[in-house]
Amino acid sequence: ALEGTTIRAVYGHSVPVMPLTPATEPPQWLYHGTSHQAATVIAKEGLLPMNRDFVHLSEDVATAQQVGARHDTHPVIYRIAARDAAKNGILFYPTSSRVWLVSELPARFLHHLTSYFRRP
């Protein structure tokens, strides 16, 4: 969120928060961009919030690629079987910025798409 001339993280980066919206049925697919180093762990353990409250998922590959490119020049993109995960009890929280939040996501719902090259 914008506050004057600064941007404040509002989705559980530093202060414990609850989602601002109720859990909602997600689209069939969501996406997560990450580094190759993190992808090795994610493939085994699934998506975990680490030092955050939630895992952030994108609605499209391009956004996931941009997010992943912050951590790796050639980010790994996972396609998330979001609707299947929701049917299995995973709660998805939409945000106003086309980001979806989950507390964690088992690896069985992740499908490795590909690695992307960052474009200038």
* Low confidence ranges: none
Named CATH topology: ADP-ribosylation fold
CATH architecture: Alpha-Beta Barrel
Number of helices: 3
- Rounded mean pLDDT score: 84
Q: Radius of gyration, Cα only, in angstroms?
A: 14 Å
Gap between N and C termini:
26 Å
Helix content: 10-25%
Instruction: Tell me the fraction of residues in β-strands, as a range.
Output: 25-35%
Overall tally of domains = 1
The biggest beta sheet is recorded as: 3 strands, antiparallel
Describe the oligomeric state of these chains in a short phrase: single chain
Please give the CATH class.
Alpha Beta
Order of helices and strands: EEEHEHEHEEE
Strand line-up of the largest beta sheet: 3-5-8
**Overall number of strands:** 8
Summarize the structure.
GO terms for molecular function: tRNA 2'-phosphotransferase activity. With 120 residues, the protein is an alpha+beta fold. It is 21% helix and 27% strand.
Write out key terms for the chains shown.
alpha+beta; ADP-ribosylation fold; three-stranded antiparallel β-sheet; 3 helices; 8 strands; RNA 2'-phosphotransferase; tRNA 2'-phosphotransferase activity
Describe the structure.
The chain is an alpha+beta fold. The chain has one domain: ADP-ribosylation fold (Alpha-Beta Barrel), CATH 3.20.170.30. 21% of the residues lie in helices and 27% in strands. The protein is built from three helices and eight strands. It has a three-stranded antiparallel beta sheet. Strands 4-7-6 form a three-stranded antiparallel beta sheet. Strands 1-2 form a two-stranded antiparallel sheet. It starts with a strand and ends in a 5-residue tail after the last strand. 28% of the residues are buried. The model has no long low-confidence stretch (mean pLDDT 84). This is RNA 2'-phosphotransferase. Belongs to the KptA/TPT1 family. Keywords: NAD, Transferase.
